[in-house]
């Protein structure tokens, strides 16, 4: 896992961290998740190189990081995904719009990139209407708001708002 960590860590160095140790912990968690292919903190931290002698100490450290109020997942996730997308190359990039009705009252609209059968969410909004179908105008409005919210990280052409 140290090699995987070494490949993940440079991607995290450009993100706005309040402490470099948070970037290190995040890189170990990502590497552990990728290697273990499971959503289990004990599996994620099993290969972590640490001064901690007991595995439980590494788990506590991981849980402390995940519950740290100074680490904002929204500030780190989107730039990390878009940084990975910059290396996409000539491969076909599929952008999906997904809607879900929650509690028969709200419509959740999500933009995601499809990759290897998985959806990597880029932006989501909750609207106060009961219909699962979203019209073209509403999709464009959500796309424009997504672009405005992530203007520093989303490439112009990703959401189809490039200049010609």
Automatic annotation (TrEMBL):
UniProt-listed SUPFAM superfamilies: Ribonuclease H-like (SSF53098)
Protein name in the entry: Transposase DDE domain-containing protein
